[in-house]
Inverse folding.
């Protein structure tokens, strides 16, 4: 086997840092699955988990096939709208091709994880009521016509938003506003869940929510600090600001909750931390610690307020994707124009950067909302996107996946068959297994 040496610019430490960061971002998708899964009812837990997990499969393949090329390939036509297909199938990129001090392949796999989690974020808005096959088709189409182009606009040096001077260090526009507005477009087509406002739709497992939020928080360090693409001072700033903004977001949400509702909830704590993380994402490398704290607190309060609006306006954003991700993304993106250390209002630079941030944020929001609504509408009128009313009432886990998350009936069935008295000790034990039963010696 022949080996080729890396160019002199290659840095092993930076490469290791980016690869580890990519693994952390990958962990965010299962974390999101648990976070969302705990917030739905028992009858749709598995469906919610799978709507996140399937993104790992679909988007990973499409990213390598053509997604990376569309997002980070050479610009087509010089308009900053989309990349070409020169890197289709990752062609033209070897293990020694560098971007900065790291291999292009390391950068590509890092950005792949961003592409994976973004459509998964959308799923929480339409929980309990979407056909899984239709969702899979939507994910494939959405990343192709929405995410890949927007990533090119925002992060490729030839992208029109990038050239405008909009700052988005780790995805306030490309990820969070993009996903949040897509969620709004999807739920506007599919409508509200059966029983919305008439019956309780509380989540079945707050411990699962807390676990998911913890995994998201942990993975977010890769999301933000890793976007420095080097183990350097910028990564350190992003890491610190990510932590304090998450904590401040939690505090802001809980204070709002205490004032408006009279109590502190675990769901509020988890949601506030995520709101802070969302808002600091685009700004984590361009503000100081006090700016990060301010962004976190503002995001916690504003997102909590935004979530409360769904009842007033009557739209069923099942798991508050619009209120947390779209609104939080707007908060963080716009506040760069306030707290940026070089171009923000606090630096005395005027409102020019704030205007640029607003243009970038609203352009992504409008594009994502329109295209996402159209995609869901087309899928709905062709193969159908929403499950039947009776299937939704029964539960999508049983109907779509022929499974249930929890087997509550095992003990009851055992007792009905073998009784509950001491005479069980004199009978052969029947051990319940997933694949059947096992008759063996008693363990008593």
């Amino acid at each position: 086997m022949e080996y080729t040496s890396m160019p002199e610019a290659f840095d092993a430490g930076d490469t290791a840092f980016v690869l580890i960061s990519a693994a952390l971002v990958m962990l965010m998708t299962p974390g999101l699955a648990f976070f969302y899964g705990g917030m739905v009812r028992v009858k749709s837990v598995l469906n919610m988990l799978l709507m996140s997990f399937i993104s790992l499969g679909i988007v990973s393949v499409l990213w390598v096939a053509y997604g990376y090329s569309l997002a980070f390939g050479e610009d087509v036509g010089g308009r900053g709208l989309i990349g070409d297909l020169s890197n289709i199938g990752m062609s033209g990129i070897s293990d020694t091709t560098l971007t900065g001090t790291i291999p292009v392949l390391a950068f590509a796999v890092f950005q792949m994880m961003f592409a994976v989690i973004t459509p998964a974020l959308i799923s929480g808005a339409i929980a309990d009521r979407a056909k899984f096959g239709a969702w899979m088709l939507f994910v494939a189409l959405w990343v192709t016509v929405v995410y890949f182009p927007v990533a090119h606009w925002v992060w490729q040096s030839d992208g029109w938003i990038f050239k405008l001077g909009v700052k988005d260090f780790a995805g306030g526009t490309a990820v969070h506003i993009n996903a949040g507005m897509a969620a709004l477009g999807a739920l506007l087509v599919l409508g509200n869940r059966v029983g919305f406002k008439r019956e309780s739709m509380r989540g079945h497992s707050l411990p699962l929510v807390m676990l998911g939020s913890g995994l998201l928080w942990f993975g977010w360090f890769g999301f933000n600090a890793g976007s420095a693409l080097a183990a350097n001072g910028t990564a350190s700033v992003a890491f610190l600001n990510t932590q304090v903004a998450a904590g401040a977001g939690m505090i802001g949400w809980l204070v709002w909750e205490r004032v408006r509702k009279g109590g502190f909830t675990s769901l509020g704590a988890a949601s506030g931390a995520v709101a802070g993380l969302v808002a600091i994402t685009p700004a984590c490398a361009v503000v100081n610690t006090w700016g990060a704290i301010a962004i976190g607190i503002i995001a916690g309060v504003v997102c909590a307020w935004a979530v409360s609006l769904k009842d007033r306006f009557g739209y069923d954003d099942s798991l508050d994707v619009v209120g947390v991700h779209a609104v939080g993304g707007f908060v963080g993106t716009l506040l760069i124009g306030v707290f940026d250390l070089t171009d923000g209002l606090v630096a005395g630079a005027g409102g020019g950067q704030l205007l640029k941030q607003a243009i970038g944020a609203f352009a992504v929001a409008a594009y994502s909302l329109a295209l996402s609504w159209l995609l869901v509408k087309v899928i709905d009128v062709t193969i159908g996107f929403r499950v039947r009313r009776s299937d939704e009432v029964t539960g999508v886990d049983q109907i779509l996946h022929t499974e249930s998350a929890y087997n509550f009936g095992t003990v009851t069935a055992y007792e009905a068959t073998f009784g509950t008295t001491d005479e069980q000790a004199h009978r052969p034990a029947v051990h319940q297994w997933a694949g059947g039963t096992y008759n063996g010696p008693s363990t008593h």
Notes: The chain has one domain: 12-398. Residues 26 and 113 are 5 Å apart (CA to CA). The beta strands are 98-99, 102-103, 429-433, 436-440.
